[in-house]
Protein backbone atom coordinates (compact mmCIF):
# COMPACT_ATOMS: atom_id res chain seq x y z
CA UNK A 1 0.00 0.00 0.00
CA UNK A 2 1.34 3.43 -0.90
CA UNK A 3 0.31 7.07 -0.65
CA UNK A 4 0.96 9.50 -3.49
CA UNK A 5 1.54 13.19 -2.90
CA UNK A 6 2.75 15.85 -5.34
CA UNK A 7 5.45 17.01 -2.92
CA UNK A 8 7.05 13.57 -2.49
CA UNK A 9 10.68 13.80 -3.48
CA UNK A 10 11.23 10.06 -3.10
CA UNK A 11 8.05 8.93 -4.84
CA UNK A 12 4.96 7.27 -3.29
CA UNK A 13 5.24 6.30 0.36
CA UNK A 14 5.03 2.58 1.16
CA UNK A 15 2.73 2.63 4.18
CA UNK A 16 3.02 -1.11 4.81
CA UNK A 17 6.78 -0.68 4.76
CA UNK A 18 6.54 2.10 7.35
CA UNK A 19 4.44 -0.11 9.61
CA UNK A 20 6.78 -3.09 9.27
CA UNK A 21 9.79 -0.89 10.05
CA UNK A 22 8.08 0.66 13.08
CA UNK A 23 7.26 -2.75 14.55
CA UNK A 24 10.74 -4.11 13.90
CA UNK A 25 12.49 -1.12 15.48
CA UNK A 26 10.06 -1.00 18.42
CA UNK A 27 10.88 -4.61 19.24
CA UNK A 28 14.59 -3.93 19.18
CA UNK A 29 14.13 -0.80 21.30
CA UNK A 30 11.98 -2.68 23.81
CA UNK A 31 14.67 -5.33 24.15
CA UNK A 32 17.20 -2.59 24.96
CA UNK A 33 14.88 -1.01 27.56
CA UNK A 34 14.10 -4.40 29.10
CA UNK A 35 17.79 -5.11 29.44
CA UNK A 36 18.39 -1.79 31.16
CA UNK A 37 15.45 -2.41 33.51
CA UNK A 38 17.17 -5.57 34.71
CA UNK A 39 20.18 -3.55 35.87
CA UNK A 40 20.55 -0.29 37.77
CA UNK A 41 18.55 2.56 36.20
CA UNK A 42 20.54 5.81 36.09
CA UNK A 43 19.03 9.31 35.97
CA UNK A 44 20.89 11.26 33.28
CA UNK A 45 19.15 14.65 33.49
CA UNK A 46 15.96 16.54 34.31
CA UNK A 47 13.66 18.55 32.01
CA UNK A 48 10.76 20.78 33.03
CA UNK A 49 11.38 20.39 36.79
CA UNK A 50 13.65 18.46 39.19
CA UNK A 51 11.13 15.57 39.24
CA UNK A 52 10.80 15.33 35.44
CA UNK A 53 13.65 12.91 34.80
CA UNK A 54 15.50 11.48 31.82
CA UNK A 55 17.32 8.18 32.26
CA UNK A 56 20.36 6.96 30.42
CA UNK A 57 18.10 4.28 28.93
CA UNK A 58 15.81 6.95 27.42
CA UNK A 59 18.74 8.43 25.54
CA UNK A 60 20.21 5.08 24.47
CA UNK A 61 16.81 3.87 23.27
CA UNK A 62 16.12 7.01 21.25
CA UNK A 63 19.58 6.87 19.69
CA UNK A 64 18.96 3.27 18.64
CA UNK A 65 15.54 4.07 17.13
CA UNK A 66 16.89 7.08 15.25
CA UNK A 67 19.85 5.11 13.91
CA UNK A 68 17.75 2.17 12.73
CA UNK A 69 15.03 4.25 11.10
CA UNK A 70 17.33 6.69 9.33
CA UNK A 71 19.59 3.88 8.16
CA UNK A 72 16.57 2.40 6.41
CA UNK A 73 14.99 5.71 5.34
CA UNK A 74 17.70 8.41 5.34
CA UNK A 75 15.55 11.21 3.85
CA UNK A 76 12.81 11.00 6.51
CA UNK A 77 12.40 13.54 9.31
CA UNK A 78 12.68 12.49 12.97
CA UNK A 79 11.23 14.00 16.14
CA UNK A 80 12.23 12.43 19.45
CA UNK A 81 11.34 13.38 23.01
CA UNK A 82 14.96 13.66 24.07
CA UNK A 83 15.83 16.45 21.65
CA UNK A 84 16.54 14.74 18.34
CA UNK A 85 14.81 16.84 15.68
CA UNK A 86 16.10 15.86 12.24
CA UNK A 87 14.67 17.52 9.10
CA UNK A 88 13.80 15.43 6.05
CA UNK A 89 12.72 15.68 2.42
CA UNK A 90 10.51 12.61 1.90
CA UNK A 91 7.29 13.92 3.48
CA UNK A 92 7.58 11.25 6.21
CA UNK A 93 8.31 12.15 9.83
CA UNK A 94 8.87 9.72 12.68
CA UNK A 95 7.65 10.73 16.15
CA UNK A 96 9.25 8.77 18.97
CA UNK A 97 8.97 8.49 22.74
CA UNK A 98 11.74 6.04 23.69
CA UNK A 99 10.26 5.33 27.13
CA UNK A 100 6.77 6.64 27.79
CA UNK A 101 6.38 6.25 31.54
CA UNK A 102 9.95 7.04 32.54
CA UNK A 103 9.13 7.50 36.24
CA UNK A 104 7.47 4.07 36.30
CA UNK A 105 10.59 2.68 34.63
CA UNK A 106 12.80 4.41 37.20
CA UNK A 107 10.81 2.94 40.10
CA UNK A 108 10.45 -0.54 38.62
CA UNK A 109 6.70 -0.23 38.05
CA UNK A 110 5.71 -2.38 35.06
CA UNK A 111 3.85 0.28 33.06
CA UNK A 112 6.06 1.88 30.40
CA UNK A 113 6.31 1.61 26.65
CA UNK A 114 8.23 2.36 23.49
CA UNK A 115 6.10 4.57 21.23
CA UNK A 116 6.81 5.04 17.51
CA UNK A 117 4.56 6.86 15.04
CA UNK A 118 5.02 7.73 11.38
CA UNK A 119 3.24 10.63 9.74
CA UNK A 120 3.03 11.45 6.03
CA UNK A 121 2.67 15.15 5.23
CA UNK A 122 1.44 15.89 8.74
CA UNK A 123 -1.02 13.00 9.10
CA UNK A 124 -0.17 10.11 11.42
CA UNK A 125 -0.63 6.89 9.43
CA UNK A 126 1.22 4.28 11.51
CA UNK A 127 1.45 3.83 15.27
CA UNK A 128 3.21 1.23 17.42
CA UNK A 129 3.14 1.15 21.22
CA UNK A 130 5.06 -1.73 22.74
CA UNK A 131 4.39 -2.44 26.42
CA UNK A 132 7.95 -3.34 27.42
CA UNK A 133 7.31 -5.11 30.72
CA UNK A 134 4.45 -7.26 29.39
CA UNK A 135 5.69 -7.69 25.82
CA UNK A 136 2.34 -6.61 24.36
CA UNK A 137 2.30 -4.91 20.95
CA UNK A 138 -0.38 -2.40 20.00
CA UNK A 139 -0.31 -1.44 16.32
CA UNK A 140 -2.34 0.80 14.03
CA UNK A 141 -1.64 0.43 10.32
CA UNK A 142 -3.68 0.86 7.12
CA UNK A 143 -6.08 -2.00 6.48
CA UNK A 144 -7.31 -3.36 3.16
CA UNK A 145 -9.72 -0.43 2.81
CA UNK A 146 -6.96 2.10 3.43
CA UNK A 147 -8.26 3.10 6.85
CA UNK A 148 -6.18 2.44 9.98
CA UNK A 149 -6.94 -0.79 11.82
CA UNK A 150 -5.90 -1.41 15.43
CA UNK A 151 -4.56 -4.67 16.83
CA UNK A 152 -3.12 -6.06 20.04
CA UNK A 153 -0.59 -8.80 19.33
CA UNK A 154 -2.12 -9.12 15.87
CA UNK A 155 -5.71 -9.47 17.09
CA UNK A 156 -8.19 -6.67 16.21
CA UNK A 157 -9.30 -4.51 19.14
CA UNK A 158 -12.13 -2.05 19.66
CA UNK A 159 -13.38 0.34 22.31
CA UNK A 160 -15.86 -0.62 25.00
CA UNK A 161 -19.55 -0.27 24.21
CA UNK A 162 -21.75 2.59 25.50
CA UNK A 163 -22.21 2.91 29.26
CA UNK A 164 -23.62 5.75 31.41
CA UNK A 165 -21.16 8.41 32.52
CA UNK A 166 -21.49 7.17 36.12
CA UNK A 167 -20.12 3.77 35.05
CA UNK A 168 -17.06 4.98 33.18
CA UNK A 169 -13.49 4.31 34.30
CA UNK A 170 -11.31 7.26 33.27
CA UNK A 171 -7.53 7.58 33.34
CA UNK A 172 -5.60 10.77 33.90
CA UNK A 173 -2.10 12.03 34.63
CA UNK A 174 -0.42 14.93 36.39
CA UNK A 175 2.12 17.51 35.31
CA UNK A 176 5.59 17.82 36.78
CA UNK A 177 4.87 21.55 37.27
CA UNK A 178 3.36 22.29 40.68
CA UNK A 179 1.03 25.11 39.59
CA UNK A 180 -0.46 22.93 36.86
CA UNK A 181 -0.90 20.04 39.32
CA UNK A 182 -3.05 22.29 41.50
CA UNK A 183 -5.52 22.82 38.62
CA UNK A 184 -5.46 19.13 37.72
CA UNK A 185 -6.08 17.92 41.26
CA UNK A 186 -9.06 20.25 41.66
CA UNK A 187 -10.53 19.15 38.33
CA UNK A 188 -10.13 15.46 39.18
CA UNK A 189 -11.88 16.07 42.50
CA UNK A 190 -14.86 17.59 40.68
CA UNK A 191 -15.02 14.84 38.03
CA UNK A 192 -14.62 11.86 40.36
CA UNK A 193 -18.14 11.92 41.91
CA UNK A 194 -19.67 11.78 38.42
CA UNK A 195 -17.85 8.66 37.13
CA UNK A 196 -17.04 5.13 38.29
CA UNK A 197 -13.45 5.91 39.25
CA UNK A 198 -10.14 7.48 38.22
CA UNK A 199 -6.96 5.64 37.32
CA UNK A 200 -3.47 7.19 37.20
CA UNK A 201 -1.23 4.60 35.54
CA UNK A 202 1.67 6.78 34.39
CA UNK A 203 1.95 6.23 30.62
CA UNK A 204 -0.09 8.31 28.17
CA UNK A 205 0.64 5.94 25.29
CA UNK A 206 -0.54 2.88 27.20
CA UNK A 207 -3.59 4.70 28.61
CA UNK A 208 -4.67 5.44 25.04
CA UNK A 209 -4.16 1.81 24.09
CA UNK A 210 -6.26 0.73 27.08
CA UNK A 211 -9.09 2.93 25.78
CA UNK A 212 -8.59 1.30 22.37
CA UNK A 213 -8.96 -2.22 23.79
CA UNK A 214 -11.93 -1.39 26.04
CA UNK A 215 -10.13 -1.51 29.39
CA UNK A 216 -10.77 2.20 30.01
CA UNK A 217 -13.72 4.40 29.09
CA UNK A 218 -11.70 7.57 28.68
CA UNK A 219 -8.52 9.46 29.28
CA UNK A 220 -7.88 13.14 30.02
CA UNK A 221 -4.57 14.81 30.82
CA UNK A 222 -2.98 18.24 30.57
CA UNK A 223 0.68 18.57 29.71
CA UNK A 224 0.99 16.00 26.93
CA UNK A 225 3.34 16.36 23.97
CA UNK A 226 3.05 15.01 20.44
CA UNK A 227 5.46 12.15 21.10
CA UNK A 228 3.29 11.05 24.05
CA UNK A 229 0.16 10.51 22.00
CA UNK A 230 1.00 10.33 18.26
CA UNK A 231 1.10 6.52 18.14
CA UNK A 232 -1.38 5.76 20.92
CA UNK A 233 -3.85 8.33 19.63
CA UNK A 234 -3.92 6.70 16.19
CA UNK A 235 -4.39 3.27 17.77
CA UNK A 236 -7.30 4.60 19.83
CA UNK A 237 -8.94 6.28 16.82
CA UNK A 238 -8.49 3.16 14.70
CA UNK A 239 -10.29 1.20 17.43
CA UNK A 240 -13.28 3.55 17.50
CA UNK A 241 -12.23 6.38 19.81
CA UNK A 242 -12.12 10.13 19.34
CA UNK A 243 -9.18 12.27 20.43
CA UNK A 244 -9.32 16.02 21.05
CA UNK A 245 -6.65 18.49 22.08
CA UNK A 246 -6.94 22.03 23.39
CA UNK A 247 -5.75 24.37 26.12
CA UNK A 248 -5.83 23.04 29.66
CA UNK A 249 -6.66 25.06 32.76
CA UNK A 250 -2.97 25.28 33.64
CA UNK A 251 -1.99 26.67 30.25
CA UNK A 252 -0.57 23.47 28.71
CA UNK A 253 -1.98 21.23 25.98
CA UNK A 254 -4.79 18.96 27.15
CA UNK A 255 -5.72 15.66 25.50
CA UNK A 256 -9.08 13.93 25.79
CA UNK A 257 -9.70 10.44 24.43
CA UNK A 258 -12.91 8.44 24.63
CA UNK A 259 -14.99 6.03 22.56
CA UNK A 260 -16.64 8.11 19.85
CA UNK A 261 -20.12 7.18 21.02
CA UNK A 262 -19.51 8.76 24.44
CA UNK A 263 -16.86 11.37 23.71
CA UNK A 264 -19.07 14.45 23.76
CA UNK A 265 -20.63 13.55 27.12
CA UNK A 266 -17.20 13.00 28.68
CA UNK A 267 -15.90 16.21 27.13
CA UNK A 268 -18.79 18.16 28.66
CA UNK A 269 -18.10 16.57 32.06
CA UNK A 270 -14.41 17.49 31.88
CA UNK A 271 -15.25 21.05 30.87
CA UNK A 272 -17.62 21.36 33.82
CA UNK A 273 -14.97 19.86 36.11
CA UNK A 274 -12.46 22.54 35.08
CA UNK A 275 -9.91 20.57 33.05
CA UNK A 276 -10.09 22.91 30.06
CA UNK A 277 -8.78 26.43 29.76
CA UNK A 278 -10.13 29.37 27.80
Sequence of strands across the biggest β-sheet: 6-5-7-8-9-10-11-12
Main CATH class of the largest domain: Alpha Beta
How many helices? 7
Overall geometric form = globular
Structural class of the helices, strands and pairings?
Answer: alpha+beta
Q: Determine the strand fraction and express it as a percent band.
A: 25-35%
Largest sheet: 8 strands, mixed
CATH topology of the largest domain: Fructose-1,6-Bisphosphatase, Chain A, domain 1
The value of Rg in angstroms is 18 Å
CATH architecture of the largest domain: 2-Layer Sandwich
Tally of domains: 2
Overall pLDDT, averaged? 92
Unreliable spans are: none
Number of strands: 17
CATH superfamily of the largest domain: Fructose-1,6-Bisphosphatase, subunit A, domain 1
What is the string of SSEs from the N terminus onward? EEHEEHEEEHEEEEEEHEHEHEEH
**Terminal CA distance:** 42 Å
What topology emerges from the helices and strands here?
Blueprint: E1 2-3, E2 13-14, H1 15-37, E3 43-46, E4 53-55, H2 56-72, E5 77-80, E6 85-86, E7 92-100, H3 102-107, E8 113-120, E9 123-131, E10 136-142, E11 148-152, E12 155-156, E13 169-172, H4 178-191, E14 197-199, H5 204-212, E15 218-222, H6 226-238, E16 241-247, E17 253-259, H7 263-273
Parallel strand pairs: 5-7, 13-14, 13-15
Antiparallel strand pairs: 1-2, 3-4, 5-6, 7-8, 8-9, 9-10, 10-11, 11-12, 15-17, 16-17
Amino acid sequence: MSADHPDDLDGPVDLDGLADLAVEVAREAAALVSGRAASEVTVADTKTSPIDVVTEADRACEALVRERILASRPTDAFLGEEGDDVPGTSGVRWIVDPIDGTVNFLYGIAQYAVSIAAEVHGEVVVGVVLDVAKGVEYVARPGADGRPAATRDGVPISVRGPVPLAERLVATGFSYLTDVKVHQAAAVGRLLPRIRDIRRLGSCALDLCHVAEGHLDGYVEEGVNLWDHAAGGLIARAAGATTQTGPGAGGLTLLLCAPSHGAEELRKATVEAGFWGE
